[in-house]
Design a protein that fits this description.
- The chain is about 45% helix and about 20% strand.
- By secondary structure, the chain is an alpha/beta fold.
- Among the domains are: about 170 residues, Alpha-Beta Complex (2-enoyl-CoA Hydratase, Chain A, domain 1); about 210 residues, 2-enoyl-CoA Hydratase, Chain A, domain 1 (Alpha-Beta Complex), CATH 3.90.226.
- Strands 10, 13, 15, 16, 17, 19, 20 and 21 form an eight-stranded mixed β-sheet that branches. Strands 8-6-5-4-1-9 form a six-stranded parallel β-sheet, sandwiched between helices. A four-stranded antiparallel β-sheet has the order 7-18-22-14.
- Helix 13 packs parallel to helix 14.
- About 10% of the residues have low confidence.
Length: about 575
């Protein structure tokens, strides 16, 4: 028996050791592969008369995740793609004499509207050089069609489907649910438009919230409609009529109404591209995949010492260390400090995609931005969302850029505390407290908020709201009275934010970088990304297993449960907008 136990132990030990060796081997090989600089070897791997294959049917974020070699050998669902890689490939293709055109697949693009518009703008600049863009899809989501509409020609599968329906936003309300199950959120807020906690207070939408959401949708649709109409040569009124009557639902009526240009299968689409290149139909099409042509917006030139830092802040703002998807005080402040101390960095751009979050952390990050601004040019680029705490940490910048589709503003403060007293009463649980003073208990999840605790939180909220407004007044050179008029928690589109003075100009990350270079007096510079995150073995394994878990737990109701979970994270004093404001 001992012999078999020893044999089994030896076998398992050998198996584990071999597995670890294989893992480290693949990590090493992958790391070496990513360290190779392809930027100066174009002549050896990009062939004459090539076409850039831009497959955007992926999940897009402002900054792609750190390289994880395990993902190269697994299928854990759609991987995240950074905007820097997408824009970088388009800009490099624009400059390359060997690349004559782009073929786009964007029907199932998973990105925010602001990101979609930045990609579309880069494609327009590519097209302005005289090169061609062809688009193809079996199915076109509305966002996917918006990106593809910039193409010279749009082709679809003859039995394909098209979505062209206008914009909408759906908000879930939980008052009846709370009353039925005895779980509720105790809410304190300032700002009549602070709708992040509204779903917990009532069972239908307030007029104020309806006004602000309608304003966002109308402003966004105006931008989309005008750009679609211009690209397709359709009158805006005619396009509105098509959308209002839901005329365009499949590829055939899309062709009939001038929304697309042809019905072909994908192999025939390849022949269309060959014809544009004057290729014989039997000749192989030379294709360059976008994820191989470039990994950055701009090539790094070792001969140039001056740099502009791009500080990426994406996700909710939490009092934490921070990560690629969470704006934490430790990581962001460290980034600000490193940029401040690095003599080669002459200016900084803060790229924000955040609905806000913890009020204290927002103030801490703002203070770090003030120290940076005092020494170097500081520009903000707003992505899909830069509101509440996301706007808070932006407001002191020298110049603020927003996309017309950006959701911003939301200058207001709220606090929410879960209370499960109703549920515990139903299931026979009673919590008793012993205290030395009237308000010693503070907050308990088992009890309604005491008068003293509620009063103290309300006082804190009023102070934070006043501080928030004073920071905006300082950064935007506005009176406190003017800030109050545009505050109260109301969210604004980027286009409206420009009109009321919350931002300085409409544009994307490229425009923000150009502005930073002008402020710093730079003609030649390199771009460097911050914060720097360690990609050690522990984080590699954690991220890989997290993706596997997410894939296993996917459910048709996932988008609703995730929304409820996000709303439930509102505990404590927050400068945050609701996650439910989503334009679809």
């Amino acid at each position: 028996m001992k012999f078999f136990k020893s044999l089994l132990a030896s076998f398992l030990g050998t198996f584990v050791a071999m597995g670890l060796l294989a893992l480290f081997f693949f990590i090493g090989i992958a790391a070496i592969a990513t360290s190779v600089n392809f930027e100066n070897t174009e002549a050896t791997w990009i062939r004459e008369n090539s076409v850039l294959n831009l497959d955007l049917n992926t999940s897009i974020v402002d900054r792609g995740p750190a390289f994880n070699p395990l993902e190269s050998f697994s299928d854990t669902g759609p991987r995240l793609t950074g905007m820097d890689k997408i824009l970088g490939s388009i800009y490099k293709a624009k400059k390359s004499d060997k690349i004559k055109g782009i073929k786009i697949h964007s029907g199932n693009i998973n990105a925010g509207w602001a990101q979609a518009r930045e990609i579309r703008k880069a494609l327009q600049e590519f097209k302005d050089t005289g090169k061609f863009i062809f688009a193809y899809s079996d199915y076109m989501s509305q966002k996917g069609y918006y990106v593809s509409s910039i193409a010279d020609s749009i082709f679809m599968n003859p039995v394909g489907m098209v979505e062209l329906k206008g914009l909408s936003s759906e908000v879930l309300y939980y008052e009846d649910f709370q009353n039925q199950y005895g779980v509720k959120m105790e809410v304190i807020r300032h700002g009549k438009y602070k709708s992040a906690v509204e779903p917990y207070l009532q069972d239908q939408m307030s007029e104020e919230n309806r006004i602000q959401i309608q304003g966002l949708l109308d402003a966004a649709w105006e931008t989309l409609r005008d750009e679609l109409a211009e690209s397709r040569g359709i009158e805006t009124a005619s396009l509105d009529a098509l959308v209002d009557k839901l005329v365009v639902t499949d590829a055939e009526n899309a062709l009939t109404n001038g929304i697309i240009d042809g019905l072909v299968y994908e192999d025939e689409f390849e022949n269309k591209i060959k014809a544009a290149l004057d290729f014989d139909a039997e000749k192989e099409l030379k294709v360059v995949n976008f994820n191989k042509i470039n990994v950055r917006i701009q090539e790094y030139d070792k001969e140039i010492t001056d740099r502009i830092a791009i500080i990426y802040a994406q996700g909710p703002i939490l009092y934490s260390e921070g990560s690629e998807n969470i704006i934490g005080k430790e990581a962001i402040n460290k980034a600000f400090q490193e940029v401040l101390e690095n003599k080669n960095i002459k200016a900084a751009v803060l790229r924000i995609d955040s609905p806000g979050g913890d009020a204290l952390t927002s103030e801490i990050i703002l203070n770090a931005s003030r120290a940076l601004k005092d020494k170097k040019p500081f520009v903000v680029s707003m992505g899909n969302v830069a509101a509440s705490g996301g706007y808070y940490i932006s407001c002191l910048a020298d110049i603020i850029f927003a996309n017309p589709m950006t959701i911003t503003g939301s200058i207001g403060v709220l606090a929410a505390f879960p209370n499960i007293r109703g549920m515990t009463d139903k299931i026979g649980i009673n919590a008793e407290q012993v205290t030395t003073h009237n308000n010693s208990m503070g907050y308990s999840v088992f009890e309604p908020l005491s008068g003293g605790f509620r009063k103290s939180v309300k006082t804190s909220i009023e102070k934070i709201y006043h501080t928030f407004k004073s920071r905006v007044a300082e950064g935007r050179t506005l009176s406190m009275e003017k800030v109050e008029q545009i505050a109260q928690g109301r969210v604004w589109s980027g286009k409206d934010a420009l009109h009321i003075g919350l931002v300085d100009s409409l544009g994307g990350l490229q425009e923000a970088i150009a502005a930073a270079s002008d402020l710093a007096g730079l003609k030649a510079y390199n771009l460097v990304d911050y914060p720097k995150y360690d990609n050690d073995l522990e984080s590699i394994l954690f991220n890989a297993f997290s993706k596997v878990k997410t894939k296993l737990l996917q459910h048709p109701l996932e988008k609703y449960t995730s929304e409820f979970i996000e709303l439930s994270r509102l505990e404590g004093i927050q400068t945050r907008i609701p996650y439910s404001i989503k334009m679809k």
